[in-house]
């Protein structure tokens, strides 16, 4: 080949090579979190040369400081990770575990009746936290920067403080009595025992020190040594049952996510002990079978919504019966997520009539806690993380362990207190999710990826039992090719088997559609705004990168090109 011809080939291939490079990495970074200071923390770390996993560390820690009602070092969560170099997806399970002294009947009185407050308020409600171990694991196995760098924005925020917002006031108001009853929480989260005014600055010097300890010593700074001693003493003085061995024995677990296929998209979500991925797969498979039966199906038509609701109803029923911690119970995941199983369910779904939930097998639904958080982040190299983190109820158990700044979770309420008996929220559970020492309570948290040749979507939301159906709504919007703003803002529709009613946000159904669904036998409740979705979309075809933060919350999204540090 002569030199001229070689040069011509190189010139032709050069732009093609560039196109290929831009198709395998976004070249910019994008993120969306539930608080502007957490978005700023993630951005700072990405600008400093960190990858998406470093940003996940920084965002998690910042949220622990500025959203104390949603997540924290005293809580847990699930991280869905995508590593661009290996192409691997991993679920990092940082869910809380029941303490070793937990017993099956610990929330029942002498007559065997549930005492629901005991699993919600106070130190007995707290599982062993997973977030500090997740920070260490992310930094050690996936990050490029040390914890001393990635935890720095959160340490500064804890020391310098953050301003009380409307949402803070609303959620602190919801938990005011519990916060006021605990001296640690009262002195930090209230102002002279009262709800702080908007703009009041919350400073957390003890939490700053705890974060510094983790930055220097890693997981041992929290689960071993002096801080562990303080945590155990504080919890036991407040009526809890933690032991040093519970903390020393806590481990995060890497698990294979649940993958399903729908309309040519691959949907990746959380594996048990979250019910999210299994339920989403089951709903998509059933809905897909019904759509094929219908020929053409518009997701937002009456028939589309009816079929979606019927698929949700059945998936939540199965969730109740079969799902729990996979380290303790056998879960028929393959069966529940198979096309054959969905085809069988679809056969029992009428195109014209709602199926009363009472005609299906026995009850179980999931707690609806009013807070939790989610963030989505993608770096310029195409690594990405979807993480849903929680301490369960707003401000968790309401107890802050003295000298640590650690606000305890009340995630033990996600166990079923007594199989078959509803708790104060009308919820019942099954054997698979009964309390056992060391066990992880069943969750609905569903961080998710939705992918095709053209799209990488990263999404999730808080919202208790409604998380699953909100993520499903985001996934369906993605498969319709809608922009990421529409995934997060789209009006929501939910059914969870029991109570037997559809919950919808205003704006989804026209009066005629509502009347038609009611005629089919559906009960409909219009509900004001739920969830706080954070999503990132990378449209590989044209290289567009988008991020969106749910206007129902106070979060912020950003897309930017990190400068070389
Ligand atoms: O793990 C769960 O499913 C619950 N603890 C999540 C609670 C929640 O999302 C509350 N949010 N609004």
From TrEMBL:
One of its GO terms (molecular function) is glutathione hydrolase activity. Its EC number is 2.3.2.2, 3.4.19.13. It catalyses: an S-substituted glutathione + H2O = an S-substituted L-cysteinylglycine + L-glutamate; glutathione + H2O = L-cysteinylglycine + L-glutamate; an N-terminal (5-L-glutamyl)-[peptide] + an alpha-amino acid = 5-L-glutamyl amino acid + an N-terminal L-alpha-aminoacyl-[peptide]. GO terms for biological process: glutathione biosynthetic process; glutathione catabolic process. L-glutamate binds at residues 95, 390-392, 414, 443-444, 464. Pathway: Sulfur metabolism; glutathione metabolism. Pfam families: G_glu_transpept (PF01019). Residues 1-21 form the signal peptide. The keyword Ribosomal protein does not apply. Cleaved by autocatalysis into a large and a small subunit. SUPFAM superfamilies: N-terminal nucleophile aminohydrolases (Ntn hydrolases) (SSF56235). Belongs to the gamma-glutamyltransferase family. PANTHER family: GLUTATHIONE HYDROLASE, GLUTATHIONE HYDROLASE PROENZYME. This enzyme consists of two polypeptide chains, which are synthesized in precursor form from a single polypeptide. NCBIfam families: g_glut_trans. This is Glutathione hydrolase proenzyme. The gene is ggt.
């Amino acid at each position: 080949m002569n030199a001229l011809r070689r040069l011509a080939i190189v010139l032709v291939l050069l732009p093609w090579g560039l196109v290929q490079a831009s198709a395998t990495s976004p070249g910019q970074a994008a993120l969306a979190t539930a608080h502007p200071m957490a978005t700023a923390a993630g951005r700072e770390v990405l600008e400093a040369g960190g990858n998406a996993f470093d940003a996940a560390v920084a965002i998690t820690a910042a949220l622990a400081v500025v959203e104390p009602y949603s997540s924290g070092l005293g809580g847990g969560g699930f991280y869905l990770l995508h590593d661009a170099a290996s192409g691997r997806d991993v679920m990092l399970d940082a869910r809380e575990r029941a303490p070793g002294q937990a017993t099956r009947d610990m929330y029942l009185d002498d007559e065997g009746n549930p005492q629901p407050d005991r699993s919600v308020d106070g130190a007995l409600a707290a599982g062993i936290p997973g977030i500090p171990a997740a920070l260490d694991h992310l930094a050690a196995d996936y990050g490029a920067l040390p914890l001393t760098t990635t935890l720095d924005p959160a340490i500064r925020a804890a020391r310098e403080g953050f301003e009380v917002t409307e949402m803070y006031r609303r959620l602190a108001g919801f938990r005011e009595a519990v916060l006021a009853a605990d001296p640690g929480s009262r002195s930090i989260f209230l102002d002279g025992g009262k709800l702080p005014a908007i703009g009041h600055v919350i400073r957390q010097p003890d939490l700053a020190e705890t974060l510094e300890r983790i930055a220097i010593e890693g997981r041992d700074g929290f689960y071993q040594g002096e801080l562990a001693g303080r945590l155990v003493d504080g919890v036991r003085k407040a009526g809890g049952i933690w032991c040093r061995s519970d903390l020393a024995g806590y481990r995060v677990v890497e698990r294979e996510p649940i993958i399903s296929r729908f309309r040519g998209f691959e949907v990746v979500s959380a594996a048990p002990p979250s019910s999210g991925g299994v339920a989403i797969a089951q709903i998509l498979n059933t809905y897909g079978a019904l759509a094929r039966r219908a020929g053409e199906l518009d997701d937002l038509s009456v028939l589309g919504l009816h079929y979606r609701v019927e698929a949700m109803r059945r998936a939540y029923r199965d969730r109740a019966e079969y799902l729990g911690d996979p380290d303790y119970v056998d879960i028929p995941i393959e069966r529940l997520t198979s096309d054959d199983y969905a085809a069988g369910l679809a056969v029992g779904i009428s195109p014209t009539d709602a199926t009363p939930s009472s005609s299906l097998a026995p009850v179980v639904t999931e707690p609806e806690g009013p807070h939790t958080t989610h963030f989505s982040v993608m770096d310029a190299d195409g690594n990405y993380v979807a993480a849903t983190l929680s301490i369960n109820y707003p401000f968790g158990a309401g107890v802050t362990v003295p000298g640590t700044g650690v606000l305890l979770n009340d995630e033990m309420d996600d166990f079923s207190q007594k199989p078959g008996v509803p708790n104060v929220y009308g919820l019942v559970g099954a054997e698979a999710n009964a309390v056992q020492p060391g066990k992880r309570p069943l969750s609905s948290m569903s961080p998710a990826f939705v992918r095709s040749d053209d799209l990488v979507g990263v999404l999730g939301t808080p919202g208790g039992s409604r998380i699953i159906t909100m993520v499903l709504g985001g996934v369906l919007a993605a498969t319709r090719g809608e922009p990421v703003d529409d995934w997060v803002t789209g009006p929501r529709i939910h059914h969870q088997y029991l109570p037997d009613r559809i919950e919808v946000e205003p704006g989804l159904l026209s009066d005629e559609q509502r009347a038609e669904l009611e005629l089919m036998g559906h009960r409909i409740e219009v509900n004001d705004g739920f969830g706080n979705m954070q999503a990132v979309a990378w449209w590989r075809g044209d290289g567009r990168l988008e991020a969106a933060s749910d206007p129902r919350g106070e979060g912020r999204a950003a897309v930017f090109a990190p400068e070389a540090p």
